[in-house]
Amino acid sequence: MGLFDKLKGFNETNTEAAKRLYDKATSEYKAKNYYSAVRLYEMAWDKDPDVGTFFNLSCCYYFEWGTSKDEKRCYELTRHAAIKDHPAAMNNLSFFLNTGYGCQEDRVEGRKWLERAANKNDVRACHTLAHNLHTEAKDDPKLLDRCHKLITRCATENFQDSRAKVNEWFGPIKEDEWNGMTTVDMYNRGCDWMNGTNGFTKNLTLAIRCFEAAAERNHAGAYCNKGWCLEQEGKYALANEAYLKGANLGNAAAMANLAQNLHNGTGWPKDDTAARHYLTMAQEAGSERATTMLAEFFPDPKEEPQPIYSEDACDDEPSTYDMDEEDDELDFEDWTNEEKVEFMTTNMNLCVSMGFCIDECDVPQLAEELIDAEEYELARKLLRSCLSVCESSENEDHIDEVRFLLAWVYYLDYDGNEEDNAPYYRLRLAYELIMLLGENPKLFGIQNQNLADFYDVCYHFGDDYDLHNMPGYHISTWYGHQAYKFYSKAADDGYGYSMQMQAKYLMKEPSVVPSNYQKAEQLLTEAVNNIQALAFYLLGDLYYHSKYGRRNVEKAKECYINFINKYYCYNLYPYEYGQACHNAASILIDYDGSKEALQQARSILSEARSHKWCFGAVDRLYGRMLCEGLGGERDVAEGRRLIAEACDDKEGEVHFWTKL
Fold first, then answer.
1. What are the C-alpha distances in Å from 136 to residues 143, 199, 201, 270, 569?
2. Which residues of the chain fall short of a pLDDT of 70?
3. Euclidean distance between CA atoms 196 and 462, whole angstroms
4. Are 206 and 233 in contact (CB under 8 A)?
5. Distance of alpha carbon 219 from alpha carbon 249, whole angstroms
6. Do 88 and 52 form a contact (C-beta atoms < 8 A)?
7. If 0-12 CB within 10 Å is exposed, 13-18 middle and 19+ buried, where does residue 210 land?
8. Quick check: 226 and 242 in contact, CB under 8 A?
9. Treating both helix axes as pointing N-terminal to C-terminal, what angle do 399-412 and 425-435 enclose, rounded to 10 degrees?
10. From residue 560, how far is each of 67, 193, 210, 548 by CA, in Å?
């Protein structure tokens, strides 16, 4: 510091000095020099507490970073930060007040601060408050609206269990939620959510839940109102399905709504024959609106033809295509794949407009069957035709799914590769379609897992196929984030493979996602129950390596041996197989040492060496066993040779292993 700076320091006000100290403390905190940060923050506080929130200092006292734990000081600082409008501090203060941490317990005051933090969009506060509201909604169902908004917000950030809770709390109505309500009560509850009446906030998602529950008990009006809600969300094909079911149960409003959409070609292809039929039905049921619509749509009276749409004919679903008479009795399932593809490509506009809602129009289902059968040429033909129609349609509900399936065909199919030495040709071909999906595509089930696999390959091998030269290039960790996100979605849907891959990222990719070994252990345990081989290996690592904080060599040995005994692992996971053999043998040698254990270790290493490739560490450890005569006959010369070939520093390593 120069003379001018020193003189300037003498003229500082307390506030200026506090600001200088506070900024320096923050720099130390970011550098994780916590001891220095605490000292500087406290000096700044002594001069002027109002220069900052001091939230970082509260964290130091809570986590014992650079200082000992001090509950009262932590509470004081947290309250100070909360008053200064720091959202995370508000959430922490709520927790302290609810538990009496450093203060007198005060749950009423704690709830106020939790509400404030949630209003500031602190995701932890939103998550906690959503859980509280869901519990309280059992006595006051009006609270479900805010609960739904909060947990949905958390789910968009993939926070903790939020995605699972959205499905659990706001999926179909469970039996215990009826709570003595009649079908009419449930229908009326849906009307309150739909219209925002009787103290309820308008929420179409919650309205649809109630209408679906009442509709399952054959309430015709519930089908009609469900259709109206779906229309407001732009889901016209699904709305028509609901209207059709309501109409066939005798609801005049559903008949009129369906007729209007059929006349206008909304959701389903335009069909005035069916529109006239349902308007006539509604008119006969006493609907004045239907009379007006008949006069408007069909001013010239005509004899009413038979309708195309009929529950008996198509199991609640519409059908407008024609077949030759000799094919009338032929079940769609009996057609060849070529015939199915030809039919769907010919009627692709119909398939898309109906949202793939019946077997004869379910393009994604047929595409997945073709992919499973490795009939890639047919799959390409089908999906290219479908994508062309989807891209020209206003309804984008399925465009992500179709783009992904076509990309997946490109990725899996080896045909069309003109270069013999182009291992990433298929990846490049699929890449552009994948990039069009955006951050949160609408995919289903195993599609999320497959997309995660694609991103996982991009993350690990992006440099190998010059990813930086491709359109839409991202830094490598972005692909890792995407892989983790979609593995998480698929894991939430119960896919064991994705559970183990999500756990792998939590264990081994800290640059992509913060490490969470507890969650990884939970996921792997569930994946093992789903018979996922790699999960055994990862669990073995979790228990074998001390850095994971769960060291248990007996559990590690058991997991490694379970993995090794899966007959396909040495082909599917060659590196992991070799490492598991080495680690299991090491445990048997160094932690057991019995005659049986040494024989088992030698057998494991011998089996590992019998394959066409061999892990260097396996050769080295097997060489050690030969040199020392562990688990069988001693062969120093062969042992030294194996160790020398496996090591970079041959003589040094040989001397180390053979020193008796």
1. 7, 16, 16, 47, 49
2. 1-10, 300-330, 414-428, 464-472, 567, 612-615, 647-660
3. 51
4. no
5. 8
6. no
7. buried
8. yes
9. 170
10. 41, 54, 49, 16
| Integer Cα distance of 73 and 51 in angstroms | 18
Query: Nearest-5° angle of CA 443, CA 446, CA 449?
Result: 90
Q: Is 472 left (phi over 0), alpha (psi -120 to 50) or beta?
A: left
Q: What one-letter code names the amino acid at 406? A: L
How much is the pLDDT for 426?
67
Return d(Cα 114, Cα 634) in angstroms, integer: 69
Cβ partners under 8 Å of residue 344, min gap 6: 351, 360, 361, 363, 366, 382, 385, 386
Of how many residues is the chain composed? 660
| Full-model pTM | 0.48
Distance CA 319, CA 18 (A): 76
The pLDDT assigned to 194 comes to 92
Report how far apart, in Å, the C-alpha atoms of 53 and of each of 81, 306, 321 are.
4, 74, 68
Instruction: Give 396-402's long-range contacts (Cβ < 8 A, gap of 24+).
Output: 397/235, 397/237, 397/355, 397/442, 398/352, 398/355, 398/356, 398/364, 398/442, 400/437, 400/438, 400/441, 400/442, 400/443, 401/364, 401/441, 401/442, 401/443, 401/444, 401/447, 402/363, 402/364
Cα–Cα distance for residue pair 566/95, rounded to 1 Å: 47
Who contacts 138 (Cβ-Cβ below 8 Å, separation ≥6)?
Answer: 179
Which whole-number Å values give the CA distances from 310 to 223, 304, 307, 589, in the listed order?
A: 16, 15, 7, 73
- Exposure string over 361-391, b if 16+ CB within 10 A, otherwise e: bbbbebbbebbeeebbebbbbbbebbbebbe
Contacts 24+ apart (CB under 8 A), 419-425: 423/464, 423/465, 424/461, 424/464, 424/465
**Using CA atoms, how far apart are residues 94 and 113, in angstroms rounded to an integer?**
5
**Residue in the structure block whose two tokens are 């004081």:** 76
> What is the biggest distance separating any 2 CA atoms in the chain, rounded to whole angstroms?
107
Span between the terminal Cα atoms of the chain, in Å: 62
Instruction: Identify which of 338, 335, 365, 339 has the alpha carbon closest to the alpha carbon of residue 351.
Output: 365
| Residue 165 C-beta-side C-alpha neighbours within 13 Å | 25
Q: What is the distance between the alpha carbons of residues 465 and 470, in angstroms, rounded to a whole number?
A: 9
b/e code 468-494 from CB counts within 10 Å (16+ = b):
eebeeebebebbbbbbbbbbbbbbbbe
Q: Rounded to an integer, what distance in angstroms lies between the CA atom of residue 21 and that of residue 395?
A: 58
**Cα dihedral 184→187→193→194 (10° resolution):** -130
- Backbone phi and psi for residue 636, each to the nearest 5 degrees, phi listed first: -65, -45
CA 567 to chain centre: 31
Tokens of 58: 């509260």
The 8-class DSSP code of residue 240 comes to H
What tokens does 643 get?
A: 């160790």
Tokens in use for 62?
């809570």
CB 217 within 8 A of CB 229: no
Question: H or E element: which one contains 340?
Answer: helix 337-346
Contact predicate 261/239, CB 8 Å: yes
The whole-number pLDDT of residue 388 equals 85
Q: Which amino acid is at 544?
A: Y
